[in-house]
Design goal:
Order of helices and strands: EHEHEHEHEHEHHHE
CATH class: Alpha Beta
CATH architecture: 3-Layer(aba) Sandwich
Number of strands: 7
Helix content: 40-55%
Bound molecules: NADPH dihydro-nicotinamide-adenine-dinucleotide phosphate
Radius of gyration: 17 Å
Shape: globular
Number of domains: 1
Structural class: alpha/beta
Number of helices: 8
Strand order of the largest sheet: 3-2-1-4-5-6-7
Length: about 250
Amino acid sequence: MNTPNFNLSNQIVIVTGGGQGIGFEIAQAMQASGAHLVIAEANASTGEAAAHKLEGDFIATDVTDSSNVKSMVQAVMKKHGRIDCIVNNAGICRNTPSEDVSDDEWRLVMSVDLDGVFYCCREVGKHMLTRGAGSIINIGSMSGSISNRPQPQSAYNAAKAGVIHLTKSLAGEWSPRGVRVNSISPGYIGTAMTKAALENPEWRDIWLSSTPMGRLGEPAEVAAIAVFLASPASSFMTGSDVVVDGGYTVW
Ligand code: NDP
């Protein structure tokens, strides 16, 4: 029997939005598995602190700006000569009744949550395809498959559905050339993104009672899957959407 290989020794891994929350936890888990991390983050203070802690690199990056993404990828290639994995994690959510969502708010959510994922896949994908190897991990959400309640968030849900299908589309195109593309779809995880909402007892009760395991997930429970998808242990996986939601989507 071959022992599964979860080792990421010497891999060059980019995590977008890796300054805090799920992104930071993924970066930390990958570093613990041997990877060198590049934190591509819009927030300079969290991004720099995360990179310092992980002995990695910080590159100020706004994923909504395709030229900014291009420069970030060029800088990583110049310094390291290759990119083994990118985790497209940067994301935002807005809770506005759909009839009141402004054009600007719709565009903002789409630009971070979907356009940003595409720009990063495209730029990193070019290098991975040239090399014929690489793993792309896109952070989707259970919101890409179900519609959350009670909070309204149609732009976020639509963007995340787009991320899951973009992942499958890229997997079909790029896997024959050696580049695996998968997504992870978390349920409710305790981070800054969910903190304010959890202070609303009505939302909190509905979220927890709708989750068979009756609790929020920890960022580390998402990070473990990212390590697996980056590693040789997942070598036959591409186009998969790995749901980690405490059972939310079974009901
Ligand atoms: P956080 O808000 O804690 O972290 C998101 C990070 O992304 C922040 O560091 C943020 O920086 C950064 N970011 C935001 N916009 C940009 C941008 N334009 N360019 C680069 N970086 C940016 O969220 P989570 O850790 O909870 O979420 C991480 C991912 O997981 C997201 O894609 C989210 O949709 C997804 N997810 C989260 C769930 C949850 O319950 N928490 C559930 C399902 C999916 P800044 O400090 O400036 O805000």
